[in-house]
Amino acid sequence: MMTDLTVGSLVEIPKSSLQQVVQILxxxxxxxxxxxxxxxxxIYDDLESVQQIPVGVLDHQDGGKYRLQQTDxxxxxxxxxxxxxxxxxxxxxxxxxxxxxxxxGVWEMKAPDxxxxxxxxxxxxxxxxxxxxxxxxxxxxxxxxVDPSYQARREKLFIAAVNCxxxxxxxxxxxxxxxxxxxxxxxxxxxxxxxxxxxEIGSQRGAEVMGGTDCSTxxxxxxxxxxxxxxxxxxxxxxxxxxxxxxxxxxxxxxxLDTSGIRDLLMHNLExxxxxxVAERCLACANCTMVCPTCFCSxxxxxxxxxxxxxxxxxxxxxxFTAEHSTMSGGAVHKSTKSRYRQWLTHKLATWHxxxxxxxxxxxxxxxxxxxxxxxxxxxxAAIRADSTNPSPGQL
Amino acid sequence: MTQHAASSATDNPWIAHPATICSIRPxxxxxxxYELAFNDPDRQSxxxxxxxxxxxxxxxxxxxxxxxxxxxxxxxxxxxHTVRVAGNVTGALxxxxxxxxxxxxxxxxxxxxxxxxxxxDVVIACGGIGLAxxxxxxxxxxxxxxxxxxxxxxxxxxxxxxxxFADEWNHWRSEGLEMEVTVDRGDADWKGQIGVLPALFSRxxxxxxxxxxxxxxxxxxxxxxxxxxxxxxxxxxRIYLSMERxxxxxxxxxxxxxxxxxxxxxxxxxxxxxxxxxxLHLEEF
Lengths: 396, 285
Ligand SMILES: Cc1cc2nc3c(=O)[nH]c(=O)nc-3n(C[C@H](O)[C@H](O)[C@H](O)COP(=O)(O)OP(=O)(O)OC[C@H]3O[C@@H](n4cnc5c(N)ncnc54)[C@H](O)[C@@H]3O)c2cc1C
Ligand code: SF4
Ligand code: SF4
Ligand code: FES
What we know:
heterodimer; A: 396 residues; alpha+beta; 2 domains; disordered C terminus; B: 285 residues; alpha/beta; Elongation Factor Tu (Ef-tu), domain 3; Rossmann fold; six-stranded antiparallel beta sheet; 6 helices; 15 strands; disordered N terminus; binds flavin-adenine dinucleotide; binds iron/sulfur cluster; binds FE2/S2 (inorganic) cluster; Helical_ferredxn (chain A); metal ion binding (chain A); iron (chain A); metal-binding (chain A); iron-sulfur (chain A)
């Protein structure tokens, strides 16, 4: 057992010892979540053991396409992000925010207890996911109001992140300064080598967990090998987005989002013809907002029992693509698909900067993959830039 | 301009606080004013609000609605909301009786800039229920009549029956508020103006450099009020408007009230025309 572990230390374990990490977390009372295959997609779900990690699975993603391939490689984490993100756990799709009880005609109102939920440990989030978490922190923790249930879950969250070795064609974290290397906000950061994980310790809790494993100090050549994983990937993502593969290869091109002056670019082109054009393809199905790890819109509904004396207010994910989202007594503000897509894209890439001093997009590509018709925000933004009615958008 | 309710670790901002309906005063067809008192005496005595702020009124089983506070901020113990029946929640509220409890969260949002506009001439231009969020301003200004210049209320409603707070007008006038009132459709007894509210601007003798405009009402009405005011060289910085958007949380969480860069619930509802100008002319924005 290593005792001199500190934040910033780099250690390594044989791959199979990842089970020790899971076990220690479980013994500490954590509910451990990790990547699993469900309905032909890699999602996050409860992990009893590392046996459930989809070893050898690769994902092929492109606009409107997601396909898994089982290979015989001993690669534990070479799929990238699937439809789930940390949002599913910290800001769950449905949750009760208030409970009211009527007794003798008088209502009592209280919030459900958030304290008793077990702390959550997540194995496998990528750099884009950690940046998305930062974005949701801004929304739920750092404004004038704090969302108590998000806060309770967030404070107890343990993160064992993974440095990607592979990117999907839909990934563009390298253009959003959100990846591919895991840079901060983790307890542990794993880099997979052929037969071992090199693990960077990011927090005291991370050190404590690793202290209980059979880890050893990582020798310089392995540290170097781990470092070059992210560097090489970033280079290849760059190459692939700048020099799209020949159509003949069947390889999808990589994505890239030019973020220079993007806030003004979009806000000065609110009446650009491209909004009409994309509206003809967009189904307003809201898939993009459901899979987006930063989208936070919700609606609150009343759920009453038969007596009407017990009423819960339930918050569930909502989307700016629905009519209800903008409905007032006089009707919806965003009636057309055009106005809804414009709300979505300008919020993600432009007004998010006004509201939260950061982009609402971390470049995970989920919205591209899960769009049934493959609408691609990098392409839509590039089209607006190519034909901007505001020729020189100011810098952000 | 933004004022936030204090939110501390112990204060879950989703919790609505039970309040008893003390009285219900019918105002005009479909509109009534509800006087509320928090059941918790401590909350009742601590509660303060600024003119223009709103509460989320909660009717369990029906939902929450954003409703402006229509009473005098300097009499916080007498908490009034003037509500027009628009649908589910407001309809359920209209079926309540004094003595029943509802839930209240708030106050939320930004306030009318009563301190910043001291010494200026003030034109309040509102339509229909839009007078409710401005009544606290009228009370505030009239209490300090000498601190402000000319005070004018331009008020419009669909018909003479829809004019709010008419029993207070004589008092307001006697305290120094000039009033111009118009209706879309008159009736046999109506001797006043007929026509849309923004047209009343032509009856005013304005000193634009000293004038502040406060407006609340349907968005289309506010757009015309703003163009009349701008046409008369009133600066966009001195025109304030209260915007309405769908609201589910009032805390910046639900995302529904977004209007460009702003969350109407926490950055507004009161904005300067300068802030809103890039967006007001856009359809479906
Ligand atoms: C800042 C602010 C202050 C307001 N002040 C007043 C006031 O003083 N007096 C008054 O009578 N009305 C006021 N309103 C309007 C009032 O909130 C709506 O009329 C009311 O929410 C309608 O709810 P409902 O369930 O009765 O109507 P419904 O039409 O049944 O509502 C249907 C759906 O639309 C939503 N919805 C409809 N209209 C609005 C709306 N305007 N804002 C948010 N959600 C809406 C409801 O949440 C619901 O989901 C104010 C609105 C805002 C934003
Ligand atoms: S907008 Fe698309 S690419 Fe950006 S964070 Fe959301 S899902 Fe990922
Ligand atoms: S407004 Fe649309 S883009 Fe913005 S957070 Fe909500 S659902 Fe996502
Ligand atoms: S009302 Fe929910 S964000 Fe403004």
